[in-house]
Design brief:
Transcription Regulator spoIIAA, 4 domains, alpha/beta, Rossmann fold, nine-stranded mixed beta sheet
């Protein structure tokens, strides 16, 4: 039976909807950079439902207009407790701009993918407006943008080192990471009558203390001071060294409180909560989500991000990979918080009752698909751990990497009478499935999981992310050697052939990463070509706040070793590295050939271009000519070929 909803089943977004609920006031008003989709995969909806579960009257203002008379910020009036602000499910700058700093043509979190509904640095813009209009009302900021900008950070889009987002926005309190625990404590303290300005000891929050005031004491926490914002501005090495402390303290079971001087204030970042308990994460997904966009968007077109995930189920949070370009652990932590099988199956049943559900789940996954129920075998060892990754450079001997609970979960989901097929859309850590890397795992369990995925949960293509082929670059990424991808491909090919599946393996790669040189990209192209790949899923490295790679990009130093690291930065360097991905395009032929010959890597020229007619003709010509004559002829040929390529509207001369 299909679920049916009425307007009051969504959090109210207008005064009319507030009146429908019979409210005479609102406790918390949430401003979001995303359109309002009442689904557990959308952070603003989760925040709103969590606050509602504490007995509060919560309203949401999605994508308020910042280009008119700002009536969206005043239409619901002043809340009883506080304003809550989030930029949405993504950092607004990542949402608005590409890696080349070009404005995106679409916004996936807006109806019809329309752009222009989310301002740059949305959390700052919304907060400043609210503080201007309601100076006495506290503003709490949260979500991924606030989390990743909670301390001095490099902002790629302005190419500047920026101070913490509290200083920039004027917000009163920042909640970083997952919001359930800190918000519950915040609301509890307010309801006990404690004045908002006195609330300074909640874990996983940050705030500013002026020099005239005392930093609140907590006998249960140790403090650690990092270099001030001003020192970071003056010295890139000091900025880099800060990050080691920030990353380690963010991923400890018992972290220290971080203090950083910023002008006439001190930024105080309280330690994180411990990993969410199963009953608590279950409770979050049991909240009364409609799983649908608000009815106000009915005539505005589909919301692309929602269309991708509306029939998906998230089974855990957190990621212990610790990849140096990824922000997941900075926001969700490295320890895995998994839902119970019963909670997952309950949500699956709810999905099957959604309008237009046809029997296909698009994803059963999480930040990484195959980390469900994985944790330390002996908790006391995890309690002392400071490593940012549990699997780099090797898998921790204390980590239980059993895939059996996940295999059993997939099978339980598929037994639902209304499920025709469930897909795994989240990224799978293929390295965890390679016995030579995951040495202490039960090999039969790994084989069973791999076969289960390939035979029942893939739609034609399995996407995995080796990211690179160069061992030095992979080490910096905190990813395993590419040799393990070769081993995984053998397993993939074996099952593919045995089951007559006709599946494709699609690897993801990154160009212009720190410590990646032009030759590394040429090697990547040659090695993947030799494996039979014509690459499609490729991207340029985008520096985002709170990652090791971004710190290296800006400062030139590795935050853990303080050694200098080269990073390609100019547009020319980036374009050239990226170009090697597409060795099979004829317009790249002579550029690749000339570039590699300049660095005496004719061996790579032959590997990359030997199968093409251009290379065979060129090789024959080289054998006939020598010295300046050969160079002159090749130069003329290259210029002629380039000239032809620049004539898109004319028929080119066949070569």
């Amino acid at each position: 039976m299909e679920l049916r909803y009425k307007l009051s089943d969504w959090l109210p977004t207008t005064n009319r909807e507030v009146k429908i609920r019979g409210w005479d006031s609102i406790d918390v008003i949430l401003f979001s950079g995303d359109a309002y989709v009442d689904h557990p995969s959308f952070g603003p909806a989760v925040l709103g439902r969590i606050l509602e579960s504490f007995g509060l009257r919560v309203a949401i203002v999605p994508q308020p207009n910042v280009n008119d008379n700002l009536q969206d910020f005043e239409k619901l009036g002043s809340p009883n407790l506080f304003f809550a602000v989030t930029a949405g499910a993504m950092d607004s700058m990542v949402s608005n701009y590409t890696a080349n700093k070009r404005q995106r043509s679409k916004d996936a979190y807006t109806p019809n993918g329309d752009k222009g509904f989310r301002p740059d640095y949305a959390s700052i813009v919304y907060t400043k407006i609210l503080k201007d209009k309601f100076p006495e009302v506290p503003v709490v900021i949260g979500g991924i943008e606030a989390s990743l900008r909670r301390v001095t950070h490099y902002d790629y889009w302005s190419d500047k080192l920026k101070t913490n987002i509290l200083t920039e926005s004027g917000a009163d309190l920042l909640v970083y990471g997952l919001g359930e625990y800190p918000l519950r404590e915040l609301v509890t303290l307010i309801q006990k009558g404690i004045p908002f300005p006195s609330i300074k000891t909640i874990k996983q929050t940050a705030f500013l203390v002026y020099d005239d005031d005392k930093i609140p004491k907590n006998k249960n926490w140790d403090d650690i001071k990092i270099y001030s914002h001003e020192e970071c501005l003056a010295n890139k090495k000091k900025f880099a060294s800060n990050f080691k402390i920030i990353e380690q303290e963010s991923n400890k079971v018992f972290g220290r409180r971080i203090l950083q001087k910023v002008g006439k204030t001190t930024l105080v970042i309280n330690p994180p909560y411990q990993t969410m308990a199963e009953k608590d994460i279950d409770a979050s997904y049991d909240l009364p989500f409609t799983r649908l966009p608000h009815p106000k968007y009915k005539n505005r077109g589909p919301i692309p991000a929602y269309e991708m995930i509306k029939f998906s189920v998230n089974i855990h949070r957190g990621c212990f990979g610790g990849c140096s370009f990824c922000t997941i652990s900075a926001h969700q932590g490295k320890f895995i918080s998994s839902r119970s099988k019963e909670s997952v199956l309950k949500e699956v049943d709810k999905v099957t009752q959604m309008p237009d559900f046809k029997g296909y789940l698009s994803d059963i996954g999480g930040p990484s698909a195959n980390m469900y129920k994985m944790k330390g075998k002996i908790q006391s060892i995890c309690d002392r751990c400071v490593a940012p990754s549990c699997i780099s450079p090797v898998i921790c001997s204390n980590l239980d990497t059993s895939h059996q609970p996940l295999t059993e979960l997939y099978q339980a989901v598929d037994k639902h009478p209304k499920i025709k097929k469930s897909f795994i859309g989240s990224g799978i850590r293929y390295d965890l499935l390679v016995p030579e890397f995951n040495k202490k795992a039960n090999q039969k369990e790994l084989e069973a999981y791999t076969e289960e995925v390939l035979t029942k949960h893939v739609s034609g293509r399995l996407k995995v992310a080796p990211e690179h082929t160069s061992d030095p670059v992979l080490k910096l990424m905190r990813k395993p050697s590419f040799t393990y991808f070769h081993k995984f491909k053998k397993v993939f090919d074996k099952i593919n052939k045995k089951r007559n599946l006709n599946l494709q393996l699609i690897p993801y790669f990154i160009s212009n990463y720190p410590d990646c040189k032009l030759e590394d990209m040429a090697n990547l192209a040659a090695e993947t070509k030799d494996m039979g790949f014509q690459l499609e899923q490729v991207q340029g490295f985008t520096p985002t706040p709170m990652t090791v790679a971004t710190v290296i990009y800006y400062s030139g130093y590795h935050p853990y070793t303080l050694k200098k690291i080269y990073t390609p930065k100019s547009k020319k360097e980036k374009d050239e590295q990226h170009r090697f991905f597409f060795w099979y395009k004829k317009e790249n032929y002579y550029w690749i050939k000339n570039t590699l010959e300049k660095v005496n890597r004719s061996d790579l020229v032959e590997k990359l271009l030997s199968s093409g007619t251009h290379y065979r003709k060129d090789k024959s010509q080289r054998e006939k000519n020598s010295g300046t004559t050969r160079n002159r002829k090749n130069s003329k040929k290259n210029r002629a070929y380039s000239s032809e390529l620049k004539k898109p509207n004319k028929k080119r001369k066949k070569r």
